[in-house]
Every structure is written in C-alpha cells, then in structure tokens.
Design brief:
With 216 residues, the protein is mainly α. It has one domain. Helix content is 82%, strand content 0%. It is built from ten helices and no strands. The longest helix has 53 residues. The protein is globular and about 65 Å long. The protein starts with a helix and ends with a helix.
C-alpha cells in the first residue's frame, strides 16, 4: 500500500494527496496514516515541500471528516440502512459509540483521530445523533489533527532515505498509538467512575441534611 500510494502521489502531486485523504475521511478503506506517510516520503525525496504537504494534508483530512459529520447530520438514521454505510457503522458498533458518547463525552471525538477503523464511524455517529454542533466538532478535530497529521508527514519525510527504519517505525508507531488510546480510555473510565461516586455521595449527603432540617 505504501509503495502504491507513493507512486500515485509522485505522478499527481498534492492533488492526489488531497483527494485520497478526503476519501479516507469518507470511510473508503485506504489507511489515512499510510497516506500521510506517503505524502511525507515524496516531500523527503524532494518532489514536494513538507510545509505545503502538511497544509494540504490538514485541509484534506478536515474536509473528509467534515463531510462524514455533515452526511450523518443531514441524512440521519435512515442513512444507516445503506449497504456501504453498514460496513462502516454496524448496529453493534453504533450502539457502542453511543455508549462512549454518554460515558466519555466530547473526548471521544478527540480520541477518534487516533483510532483507525473507528474514526469515520464515530464522526458519522456524531453527525447522526447531533451529539455536538459543527463548530465544536471541527475545533476538537482540528486540535487532534494538528497532532496526528504533522506526526505522520514528518515520519515519512525523515524516513524517505531509509526504508528499513521507516518500516520499523511505522509498526512501532501503530503499537504506540494503540497503547496510548487504550490508556486514555482507561484513565477516562477511572475518572468517570470516581466522579460518579463523588456525585452520588454528595447527593446522599445533601439528602441527609435536607431530611434533618425537615425533622427539626
């Protein structure tokens, strides 16, 4: 996949990178991270400017994510019945995402950028449920993209002259991101649990005081 994308990007330049990243955002099964790395590689080989490549990639990523959000927002639940969409958002996956929204709130949208395979489903579900307004969605997504996009671009840029190193780093990077996401969700779960317990205790304590005042 990496070599194929590099070949296409060398032939068609920034337009190819831009278009492929929009397709990635729409749930087409092309790995976004590999696409970004490929863009970085052609910049590292001297066929593109790394700063322009980063800007073009950011724009393509955000347009793709925005498109998925708005598709869900305007077409709603009936869109879930489509054959292609059901491959992206199965009923079980949709229920899970709704539970995440309820439990973790807006943080799920930030974490989605680092979750290949779930990103499109989460953004589509956010649009369908109108979980947040678009300005909030794009703000969170942009902050996350400012982390992920330059990371993959410059990984490809610096690895363009050393393929073996790049392949090893790609593998380790995927593992590192997976571990980071798991830890992130675990921390949120612990935080949510203790916040729920504290609120429960406060509610019981407040109810106890109210009862005593009523008796007096």
């Amino acid at each position: 996949m990496l070599q194929s994308l590099i070949t296409v990007f060398l032939e068609f330049g920034y337009f190819a990178v831009f278009g492929v990243l929009i397709l990635c955002g729409l749930g087409i099964p092309i790995p976004e991270d590999i696409s970004l790395i490929s863009g970085g590689v052609i910049a590292g080989l001297g066929y593109a400017n790394p700063y322009v490549m980063t800007a073009v990639s950011m724009t393509g990523v955000l347009i793709g994510d925005t498109s998925m959000f708005y598709i869900g927002h305007h077409l709603g639940n009936r869109f879930l019945n489509g054959r292609f969409v059901r491959r992206i958002v199965t009923p079980a996956r949709y229920r899970t995402i709704l539970e995440w929204f309820d439990r973790y709130g807006k943080t799920v949208l930030f974490a989605a950028r680092f979750m290949p395979g779930l990103r499109a489903a989460i953004f589509l579900s956010a649009g369908i449920t109108r979980f947040v307004r678009y300005p909030v969605f794009i703000l969170i997504d942009t902050i996350a993209a400012f982390i992920s996009v330059p990371l993959w671009i410059y990984l490809g840029y610096y690895g363009a002259s050393n393929w073996e190193w790049l392949k090893r780093i790609i593998t380790k990077s995927h593992v590192a991101i997976l571990v980071a996401v798991v830890l992130f969700i675990a921390i949120l779960s612990i935080h949510t649990f203790f916040r729920y317990k504290v609120k429960k205790i406060e509610k019981q304590f407040s109810g106890s005081i109210t009862s005593r005042e009523g008796m007096e």
